[in-house]
């Protein structure tokens, strides 16, 4: 894919097939194999930022490193390559016995990975690794029955699986406040709709592939809608406009379940359990086009909402 401002990388790729390319005069775009590699590299860079770093923007297959004017680009590049080597060295293959639920193993591994990179954590002023954002949801989406049919489970089981796991924000894209959450139960991995809707209401809780998300504003979209939330995902008047930032941990709460309740009065939307407060940054889904995500940036190809 040709990227504006990018030049051919004539140096040997970093470990693990990572490629570091200039992206204009004050940024490097780092291409990696997938989301796990993105998260490992992002954590390494946040734990030990390159000189002059102004922003780190993780996406589906890339991490964008922006740095201040006057910072020697060579110093930044060497630092990024060293971080890529550290991230690659942390790759671990986990093999498990036949009959072991893959979802249980995945959740355990993800929890171990969070503990391992706790020093890096999400962006500055984002929720701390101990804080969990809870989003209240009414599970009455127009695609809930279809998701149940596609996955071979009941409506109640779809809800139970969606609320029963902790999700992590991998990156943002498409529109301000839209966050791509990973950690979806493998049984709920469903394809996008063959024909996108012309208008998806704000607050719609959706599934597509390995991701789940909440639409922050009305927009066209092709993800499968299973519920709705009153959470305000983006508010430009807040000190930290976006509620969900990369690295943030999220749990969905069924507002209609007995004893359920989310955080806050009047169907509230969201609260943070544990230290920290909602942070800012990030964006959301439906634009075809590149991988890099930042406010207003397009969503990664294949993951558009």
Structure description:
There is one protein chain. The protein folds into two domains: 1-121, Gyrase A, domain 2; 123-273, Cyclophilin. 20% of the residues lie in helices and 22% in strands. The chain has helices at residues 35-47, 73-89, 102-116, 144-151, 155-163, and strands spanning 19-22, 27-31, 53-58, 62-67, 132-137, 167-172, 179-182, 197-200, 204-208, 211-214, 219-221, 224-228, 249-254, 270-273. The protein has a five-stranded mixed beta sheet with strand order 7-6-13-5-14. Strand 6 (167-172) and strand 7 form a beta hairpin. Helix 1 (35-47) packs across helix 2 (73-89). The longest helix is centred in the first third of the chain and has 17 residues, at 73-89.
Defining traits:
single chain, 305 residues, Gyrase A, domain 2, Cyclophilin, 2 domains, four-stranded antiparallel β-sheet, disordered N terminus
